[in-house]
Task: structure prediction
Amino acid sequence: MRSTVLEYDISKVVELARNGKRVDGRALDEMRDFSVVKNKFKNAEGSAIVKLGDTEVMGGIKVLVDKPYPDSPDEGAISVGAELLPLAHGDYEFGPPSMDEIEVARVVDRGLRESKAIDFAQLCVKEGEAVRVAFFDFYAINSDGNLFDAGSIAALASFMDAKLPKLDEKFKVIKHEYDGKIQLKRLPLLTTFVKVGGKIMVDPTYIEEKAAEARFSVATTDDGYMSAMQKGMGGSFTLEEVNYMIETGFKVAGEVRKKLQKM
Amino acid sequence: MSKEMKEEVPDYKKSKKRLDGRKMEELRPLSIKVGVIPNADGSAYLEWGQNKVYAAVYGPREALPKHTQNPYKAVIKAVYRMAGFSVPDRKRPGPNRRDHEISKVLSEALDKVVFTEQFPNTEISVIVEVADSNAGSRVACLSAAACALADAGIPMKDLVSAVGVGKAFNEIVLDLNKDEEDAPDAVDVPFAIMPNSEEIVLLQMDGLLTPKEWEAVSKLGLAGCKQVYEVQKKALTERFQIKELTKADVAKEVSNGVEEKKESKKEVKEVKEEKKDDKKGKEDKSKKVRK
Result:
């Protein structure tokens, strides 16, 4: 029964897309409205609840102290984790990390890491002995498509205000005491597109993702760099299409960033 | 000098006041919002002191894999999880033994209250996620989960109201926070009842209590659950309240309508949305009929 409805909805999305239209009346290059609530969770070093249309994610940062990797004794590290909680959609299940969870976490991670926005040297406590590792984990609360961009906004919003825990002489975290903030050199954001009925549209909803032939994400920074790209799903893009998405990605991410900085 | 430096252990019997300024039988601020996750059949968000939890209900739906089905009743499957950033040290991803145990006792507490015999072979999934915590997260989750079940329109005998109660710093206290849970003499008793029949559906304890102290603890637990019940009821009535339109509201609606007609495009959108709403309305009605 459910799948029949889904098939009908998908055909409708495709039909509208062929005429350059979308189910919710948005333009093809229009992002849904979003809101961000920062630092609501007191146990986290930084956190954000992001609502992008009906998609809602929460993300937060914990900064721990660990031994550095042998090949980079003076550098800390970051780690990004994603969970598509069964809370967020009837189709999601508990279990070992799914392919989708791993992909979305890794794409958000690369956008952030490769932009070199976070100075890993700043996270070094003592060369060869102790470095800080910032764990950013985000969770889907309600899933209506595009967890990539929602996760990316949550990551940036969380890191923009993330505190560093104070350490004692033995490099142990002193609980509830902080020592400065994580510095960001630039502000990377992901922008995700799908191709439906031969048309490219930004920020897909759940049903648009189901109707899509192919997906593409690009991470762009405020100072004009691209820091990560990912093509997903079975379909393909022409080079013109990719160039269009990169160009639109800069534009859309720029608007999101502006709003985010004011929040 | 080191003796002076040592922090003195508080004594609530003397101070008559708790570390956070509360009275002995006072809850931390508690608020619940029902219907926060559009995809779910029922949902709730709860803040209780620093605790912040989400609860969602999906179902009744076919229980899978098939061997989990019970031909006589629905299976209530509650799952308790914590976000990585919800505790002072990062919680590693994936469930640990504590998560599994709490999931089990939550499932069992909710099982009693649902008319499970009406939905054979199905599963009712209750998912609770802790976003922030400071002692008492399981009772917070249970109270939120009960609201989410009611929001899903699942037939229930009663709600489940839960509270943490116990002993800290030489006094019996309601709703212990983390500092109190870490007290040298701390006793932690998660306690949940069906508020109308006062039957106990969840009870755990760790620490040392005399039977006399238990009498006080259980009494305080019952009273605490009743307080939680009032907040739950308020949250649920708010969710299902039908607002009566005043004359001013009607006038406003009418004038809005006129404005919309000026812009034909907008009108089309409105109509579409109304249709969607209609569908939702029908679904809601069917739910009520099921009740």
Q: What stands out?
A: The helical segments of chain A are 2-18, 99-113, 147-160, 206-211, 239-262.
